[in-house]
Design brief:
By secondary structure, the protein is mainly α. The protein is built from eleven helices and no strands. The structure holds protoporphyrin IX containing FE (HEM).
C-alpha cells in the first residue's frame, strides 16, 4: 500500500527513478520503442474522443473496451500473485491497489448503462475478445509479460488519461440528466475511471515507476526484457484495432439509422423536395414576368 496521505511530490531530480535519460531502464526503453505507435493511437483516440463526447453511446462503448482489458489484467495479476511462483513477489511489489481500474470502470459503466451490468459484462466485439484471450495466454505462459501491461496501460492513465479527463468533464452533451443532480455531481458519477483515491496522484505515479524500475532492473534477463518490449508493441497495436473496430461498428449503426430514416420517412422527404422545386419554379416565373 502506498502511503500517500499528506505527501508531497516535491522530490529532488536525483530521487526520481528512473531518470528520464536512463536508457537502460525498462520503462524508458518501452517508451522509446513504442513512440511511433503511441503517436498513432494518440491521434486516433483524440479524433474519436471528439465524437464520443457528443454521444454517450460511443463513449460507453470505448470505456467498455478498456474495462475488459483492465479487468483481465487485474484478474491475471491476482492469479499470478496468489500462485506463489517465481514472479509472484515481483508482481506483488510493483502492484499498488490504488491503481486498480476494474471497479472504477464498473462504477462508470453502471452509470452509463443505467445499472444494467449484463450490457457490458462480457466482451462481444471480436478484437476485444482476441485482446482478452491474448492477455490470459501471455499471463499463463510467461507471467512476466504482465509487466508490459503494468507499464503501458497504467501509465497511460496519468498522461493521456489526465488530458482526456479534463475534456470529458467539460463535455456537456455526454452526461445524462439524473434526478435533478448538479452538473459537477453528475460528472463525478461518470468519471471514476480517471480518478485515484489518493492524496497525491503524482506521488502514486512516481512510486509506481520507481518500484517498477527497481524490481525489473535485475529481476529480468535481457531476453525477457526484449519480450516485454515486444508485448508492449502488441498492446498499442491491439488497442488501435479495438478503436478501429468500434469506429466500423458505429459507421454501420449510423448508416442503418439513415437507411431506416430513408425507408420510413422517405415519402415526407420526397414531398418536401417537391415543394421546394415547385417554389423555385414559381419564383423563376415571377422574376421572369415582372423584371
Ligand atoms: C490506449 C491509448 C494510450 C496508451 C496505451 C498510452 C500509453 C502511454 C504511456 C505508456 C506513456 C508513458 C508514460 C510514462 O512513462 O510515464 C504515455 C505518455 C503520454 N501519453 Fe499516452 N497513451 C495512450 C493514449 C494517449 C492519448 C489519447 C493522449 C492524448 C490525449 C496521450 C498523451 C500522452 C502524453 C502527453 C504523454 C506524456 C509524454 C511524455 O511525458 O513525454 N496518450 N502514454
Amino acid at each position: 500500500m502506498v502511503q500517500t496521505s499528506g505527501a508531497t511530490t516535491k522530490l529532488a531530480q536525483h530521487e526520481v527513478v528512473p531518470a528520464p535519460t536512463d536508457m537502460g531502464a525498462l520503462a524508458n526503453r518501452i517508451n522509446k520503442e513504442t513512440r511511433t505507435l503511441h503517436n498513432k493511437i494518440d491521434k486516433m483516440m483524440t479524433l474519436k474522443l471528439a465524437l464520443a463526447l457528443r454521444d454517450p453511446k460511443i463513449y460507453r462503448q470505448g470505456l467498455q473496451s478498456f474495462y475488459h482489458v483492465f479487468a483481465t489484467i487485474e484478474r491475471c495479476l491476482k492469479e499470478q500473485i496468489n500462485a506463489n511462483n517465481e514472479w509472484s513477489d515481483m508482481l506483488n511489489e510493483i502492484w499498488k491497489p490504488e491503481i486498480a481500474r476494474t471497479e472504477k470502470c464498473e462504477q462508470d459503466l453502471m452509470f452509463y448503462y443505467d445499472d444494467n451490468r449484463e450490457k457490458f459484462e462480457k466482451p462481444m466485439m471480436s478484437e476485444q475478445i482476441d485482446f482478452v484471450n491474448h492477455i490470459v495466454k501471455s499471463s499463463n505462459d510467461k507471467p512476466y509479460l504482465l509487466l508490459a501491461y503494468l507499464h503501458v496501460m497504467y501509465l497511460a492513465l496519468f498522461a493521456g488519461g489526465r488530458i482526456m479527463r479534463s475534456s470529458i468533464s467539460r463535455a456537456t452533451g455526454l452526461f445524462p440528466q439524473k434526478n435533478g443532480l448538479k452538473h459537477e455531481e453528475i460528472v463525478k458519477l461518470g468519471t471514476n475511471f480517471f480518478t485515484f483515491d489518493v492524496a497525491d496522484e503524482n506521488l502514486l505515479r512516481l512510486v509506481y515507476k520507481r518500484d517498477y524500475e527497481l524490481l525489473t532492473r535485475s529481476g529480468l534477463t535481457e531476453e525477457q526484457k526484449l519480450e516485454v518490449i515486444e508485448e508492449s508493441k502488441y498492446i498499442f497495436e491491439q488497442n488501435g484495432k479495438c478503436v478501429s473496430e468500434l469506429e466500423r461498428h458505429n459507421l454501420v449503426r449510423l448508416s442503418r439509422k439513415w437507411s431506416y430514416i430513408a425507408a420510413t420517412k422517405g415519402y415526407y422527404v420526397l414531398m418536401a423536395l417537391l415543394v421546394l422545386a415547385v417554389l423555385y419554379y414559381v419564383r423563376r416565373l415571377v422574376v421572369h414576368a415582372f423584371f
